């Protein structure tokens, strides 16, 4: 007898990439951003497939877009995941986030078992067995997974404009010994100070604060807890599951009025594993430059060969090209990450840039450390250094 | 120019002390180092001749590069040897004996591998054998849950492990669907057996657990072939399991408590170790009955949880507080035993040769008590009887948890159980009667009328 899996994987892929708009525009949804030749959502699905999840145990929540659906089905074919469950959420409101996705999934009764919530932008060597065992042993209702951040490989400069790289770190407070999760905040949310509520300290006087870890956004959460969440948050509007809802839950469950819920949250900490969350431009560049690590982690994963046209006489060094790129003669590309459909005309010199999809670099132009937005056309003989070039009002430019 | 290069080479060595600028004369230290290096190289060559080709690569490279380094550093720089030679230099902080000796000692380790590897393999951390992917889906999830908890010591104590496993089995039986092509009995038997085999790879079974499973499989085997409804069979099996739990565990504990009460008198000073459910119940009942005795608890790192439990139960206001409790370190037992009247130990398993398995350290305590002529009393239910006769803990599977601290080469194995030989045991209190430990095997055999089938 083969026993049914108790856990349903839920991949949250409806995001718009609000922190990467210069890269994506509205043309490319975040889940289809190419990283080392594969769309971003390929990686969590590959991790799930590698550990044994079958298609019908996976629910993917996406925007209501045809290109996303098609890409998803082709990925499912490649990975052998048949019967993938897809839920579309309407892409209307501005403040749409992960919490909304989950709420819609719950109300449409799509999540029936314990859920493993994975964000589409997590590229990681996820220790599923350790996470599941930990969850079982502790009898926890919500288990988070923290691993070490992926380091920039040596001798690699990340392309893109030198923006003030705000480190996306997570500040986590755990009870040493049992690993109860007592505090969680993102560094971006704490401007100058980290505030620990007194109620937290009263119930857990010995708290260990960890700052060197990154939250993989992989959450194992019991079905009963999910449903209680649905009920409890009907009055408050949460946008982001991780950013707003979880800190709220963790900090408030020590307060007396929450005491009827006995939540048990645990943090599974595995610093031997690495993860990169592709939700900002520097991390996107990092992910693209870490092809070796990705190949190690995703064994048997195929990095498809893209159909590019590269003319003679052009020089490419440390460059990643997406699908259907065209590089004409005497072009010189150094340390460039190009997404799909980029055209680089003859004689152009591009150094340390990120070129978004379908951008056109004019002939004999010189670009250094720029970020070229989607469908932007760099004029011939243009000279740009350290700039973010993007089409402002996308609605005006038709094609 | 040469001196510059030498300095450069040396500055490449990570964090080494700055050496005096080399002149044409080689310093005394250098000469000594060279001599030592040559000696060690000779030993290495000797070992190499014993070992043959296998040892060649490490010794030969260290041999070649090493003694060459100090004296001919200049020469090698001049002749421009391969980068490997230069790499060897920065690798060592002190260019002489250390690295060659490491190469040699590796050989020595290999040569008396017979003794060291046995010890090493004994105390190597036993990685929980990875449950193969295919097996996970064949293992009923509550079993896996129990297995994980047992392995990680969340479920402590033989009795509770057995009860939790039997509960999981009951759950399993309730949910069992007969696959087409087999009868209920055969299908259930085969499936349960397979599940237990898979579970054994997750966690080592304690004696109580294996006995319970064996009993159940034996019963299943003996069940008449079905010509009845599946639900009837299921109910029958559930009843049998319940009966087992009640008879062999709960009632056994009560019986032991009754016998044990005869042994606890007013004014007794009792040293207690390896706290099991039976022992805890006995102490609590004695306190409830108003016997004023004094309790000496042995406290070790592993027993914190059980001691806390016991203290909680003793604190419950029963009769007037007549039990004085003190807790001492394990090493203080040697001193304390002199003033005690007896030593009570909770047993985890009983063997045919009269040996008793209990928490690690009980063997030592029994020896200490025996030296001072204090009676050593073990409390053990009969369902923990095991058909083996180990002389010590080594052949047992579960003597060590899988995680223990290893700082580099320092192995600190954390042993959980050990075996006390029968000559140190005064009496074993079981649910049948109070028995001498080596008479137990015979008594049980006579009682049950034949040996139970092996799993």
From TrEMBL, chain A:
Q: Which InterPro entries match?
A: eIF2B_gamma, MobA-like_NTP_Trfase, Nucleotide-diphossugar_trans
The protein's location, in the record's own words, is:
Cytoplasm, Cytosol
Keywords carried by this UniProt record: Cytoplasm, Initiation factor, Protein biosynthesis
**Which is a Pfam family this sequence falls into?**
NTP_transf_3
All copies of domain MobA-like NTP transferase, residue ranges: 9-123
Gene3D superfamilies per the record?
A: Hexapeptide repeat proteins (2.160.10.10), Spore Coat Polysaccharide Biosynthesis Protein SpsA, Chain A (3.90.550.10)
Q: Oligomeric state and partners?
A: Component of the translation initiation factor 2B (eIF2B) complex which is a heterodecamer of two sets of five different subunits: alpha, beta, gamma, delta and epsilon. Subunits alpha, beta and delta comprise a regulatory subcomplex and subunits epsilon and gamma comprise a catalytic subcomplex. Within the complex, the hexameric regulatory complex resides at the center, with the two heterodimeric catalytic subcomplexes bound on opposite sides.
Q: What protein does this entry describe?
A: Translation initiation factor eIF2B subunit gamma
Biological source species: Orchesella dallaii
TrEMBL record, chain B:
The reply to whether Manganese figures as a keyword in the UniProt entry is no
Annotated region Disordered: where?
Answer: 1-81
Broad class of the protein's primary localization: cytoplasm
* Swiss-Prot/TrEMBL keywords: Cytoplasm, Initiation factor, Protein biosynthesis
Ranges of compositional bias, category Basic residues = 40-51
* Top-level taxon of origin: Eukaryota
- Here the segments flagged for biased composition (Basic and acidic residues) are 25-39
- Subcellular localization(s) per the UniProt record: Cytoplasm, Cytosol
Which InterPro entries does this entry report, sorted A to Z? IF-2B-related, IF_2B-like_C, NagB/RpiA_transferase-like
Which residue stretches does the UniProt record annotate as biased composition, category Polar residues?
71-81
For this chain, the family text in UniProt reads: Belongs to the eIF-2B alpha/beta/delta subunits family.
Q: How does it assemble?
A: Component of the translation initiation factor 2B (eIF2B) complex which is a heterodecamer of two sets of five different subunits: alpha, beta, gamma, delta and epsilon. Subunits alpha, beta and delta comprise a regulatory subcomplex and subunits epsilon and gamma comprise a catalytic subcomplex. Within the complex, the hexameric regulatory complex resides at the center, with the two heterodimeric catalytic subcomplexes bound on opposite sides.
**Name of this chain's protein:** Translation initiation factor eIF2B subunit delta
> What species is given as this protein's source?
Orchesella dallaii
């Amino acid at each position: 007898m083969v026993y049914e899996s108790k856990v349903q994987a839920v991949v949250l892929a409806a995001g718009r990439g609000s922190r990467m708009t210069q890269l994506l525009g509205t043309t490319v949804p975040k889940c289809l951003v190419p990283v080392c030749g594969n769309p971003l959502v390929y990686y969590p699905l590959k991790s799930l497939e590698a550990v044994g999840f079958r298609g019908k145990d996976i629910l993917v929540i996406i925007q209501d877009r045809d290109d996303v659906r098609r890409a998803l089905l082709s990925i499912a074919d490649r990975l052998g995941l048949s019967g993938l469950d897809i839920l579309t959420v309407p892409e209307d409101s501005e403040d749409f986030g992960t919490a909304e996705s989950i709420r819609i999934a719950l109300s449409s009764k799509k999540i029936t078992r314990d859920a493993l919530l994975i964000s589409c932008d997590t590229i990681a060597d996820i220790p599923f067995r350790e996470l599941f065992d930990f969850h079982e042993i502790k009898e926890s209702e919500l288990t988070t997974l923290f691993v070490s951040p992926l380091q920039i490989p040596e001798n690699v400069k990340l392309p893109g404009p030198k923006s003030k790289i705000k480190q996306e770190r997570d500040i986590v407070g755990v009870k040493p010994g049992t690993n109860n999760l007592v505090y969680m905040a993102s560094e971006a949310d704490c401007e100058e100070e980290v505030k620990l509520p007194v109620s937290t300290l009263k119930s857990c006087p010995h708290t260990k604060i960890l700052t060197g870890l990154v939250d993989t956004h992989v959450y194992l959460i019991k079905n009963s807890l999910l449903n209680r969440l649905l009920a409890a948050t009907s009055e408050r509007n949460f946008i982001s599951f991780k950013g707003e809802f979880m800190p709220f839950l963790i900090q408030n469950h020590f307060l007396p009025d929450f005491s009827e819920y006995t939540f048990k949250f645990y943090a599974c900490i595995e610093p031997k594993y690495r993860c990169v969350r592709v939700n900002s431009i520097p991390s996107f560049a990092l992910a693209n430059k870490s092809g070796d690590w990705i190949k190690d982690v995703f064994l048997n994963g195929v990095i498809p060969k893209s159909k590019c046209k590269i003319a003679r006489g052009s020089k490419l060094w440390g460059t990643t090209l997406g699908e259907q790129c065209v590089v004409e003669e005497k072009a010189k590309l150094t340390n460039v990450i190009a997404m799909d459909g980029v055209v680089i005309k003859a004689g152009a010199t591009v150094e340390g840039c990120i070129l978004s999809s379908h951008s056109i670099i004019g002939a004999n132009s010189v670009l250094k450390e720029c970020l070229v937005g989607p469908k932007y056309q760099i004029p011939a003989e243009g000279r740009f250094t350290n700039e973010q070039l993007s089409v402002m009002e996308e609605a005006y430019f038709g094609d | 120019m040469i001196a510059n290069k030498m300095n450069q080479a040396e500055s490449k060595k990570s964090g080494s002390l700055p050496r005096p600028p080399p002149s044409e004369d080689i310093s005394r230290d250098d000469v000594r180092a060279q001599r030592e290096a040559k000696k060690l190289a000779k030993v290495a060559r000797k070992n190499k001749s014993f070992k043959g080709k296998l040892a060649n690569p490490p010794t030969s490279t260290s041999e070649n590069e090493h003694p060459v380094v100090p004296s001919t550093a200049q020469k090698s720089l001049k002749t421009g040897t391969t980068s490997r030679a230069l790499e060897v230099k920065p690798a060592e902080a002190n260019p002489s004996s250390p690295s060659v000796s490491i190469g040699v000692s590796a050989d020595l380790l290999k040569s008396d591998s017979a003794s060291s590897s046995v010890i090493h393999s004994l105390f190597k951390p036993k990685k929980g054998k990875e449950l193969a992917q295919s097996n996970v889906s064949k293992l009923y999830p509550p079993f896996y849950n129990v297995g994980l908890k047992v392995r990680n010591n969340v479920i402590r104590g033989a009795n509770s492990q057995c009860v939790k496993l039997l509960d999981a089995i009951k759950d399993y039986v309730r949910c069992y669907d007969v696959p087409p092509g087999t009868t209920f009995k055969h299908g259930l038997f085969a499936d349960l057996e397979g599940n237990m085999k898979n579970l054994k790879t997750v966690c080592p079974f304690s004696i109580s657990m294996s006995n319970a499973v064996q009993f159940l499989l034996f019963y299943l085997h003996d069940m008449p072939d079905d010509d009845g409804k599946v639900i009837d069979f299921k109910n029958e099996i559930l009843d049998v399991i319940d009966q087992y739990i009640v008879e062999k565990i709960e009632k056994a504990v009560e019986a032991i408590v009754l016998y044990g009460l005869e042994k606890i008198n007013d004014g007794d000073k009792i040293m207690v170790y390896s706290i099991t459910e039976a022992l805890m119940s006995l102490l609590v009942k004695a306190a409830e009955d108003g016997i004023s005795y004094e309790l000496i608890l042995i406290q070790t790192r592993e027993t914190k949880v059980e001691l806390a439990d016991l203290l909680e139960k003793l604190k419950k206001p029963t009769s007037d507080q007549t039990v004085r409790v003190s807790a001492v370190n394990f090493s203080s037992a040697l001193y304390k035993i002199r003033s005690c009247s007896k030593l009570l130990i909770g047993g985890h398993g009983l063997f045919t040769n009269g040996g008793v398995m209990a928490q690690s350290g009980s063997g030592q305590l029994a020896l200490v008590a025996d030296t001072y002529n204090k009676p050593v009393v073990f409390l053990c239910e009969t369902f923990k009887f095991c058909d083996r006769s180990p002389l010590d803990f080594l052949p047992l599977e579960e003597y060590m948890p899988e995680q223990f601290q290893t700082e580099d080469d320092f192995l600190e194995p954390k042993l959980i159980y050990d075996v006390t030989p029968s000559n140190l045991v005064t009496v074993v209190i079981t649910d049948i009667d109070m028995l001498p430990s080596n008479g137990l095997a015979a008594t049980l055999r006579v009682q049950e009328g034949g040996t139970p089938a092996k799993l």
